[in-house]
Amino acid sequence: MKRKQGIGLARATGVLLTGILVMFAGGASAHCDSMTGPVVPDARAALESGDLDPVLKWIMPEYEAEVSDAFQRAVEVRALGDDARELADRYFLETLIRVHREGEGAPYTGLKDDPAAPIVQMADQALADGSVEGMMEKINRHLASVVGEKFQAALEAGKNKDRSAEAGREFVAAYVTYVHYVEGVHDAIVASGGHHAEHNSDSGHAH
After folding, report:
1. What is the pLDDT of residues 50-82, one digit of tens each?
2. What is the DSSP track for 29-85?
């Protein structure tokens, strides 16, 4: 029985991969406003080449005029010297990433120097490698382990839940932890339709 449960769980984790990526990366919305994120290299390359086109993919069409104006100003100021170049670059980066975040419906809180979260680095590396298999294996293994542990804790606690109030509370704590985690996975899957999709408060029961 345990072996069958393990096989079923492993299969389920593959189905949940997309949702888990969104759940882990939900707090990584700051990835694109990081100096180590994917937007900055494109922006710097555009400033060096004088060609804005490769940057436009990061913004919605309605922001093109604003970004184009900021780009032209930055290019002009860069020609005034090294100090001016640094200020111009910063100005353009701030403008570009601010409107990028606005297009996502997310607040802009300034450029960040913090590195991206490990899961985001892993996702970027998968793209660089041209293969998702390694990342899938790591995420599936992690998810199987965590869900399995929480499931087993709730299962074991449930065997003694009626022996005493204390034992019952231990079961409830384990049960809530287990179910809330699984609900979080479900919510992540539901939210995966949008980069900043809102939480669906009707997707499950409150425990």
Report:
1. 999 999 999 999 999 999 999 999 999 999 999
2. GGGGGBTTSSHHHHHHHHHHHT--GGGGGGS-GGGHHHHHHHHHHHHHHHTT-HHHH
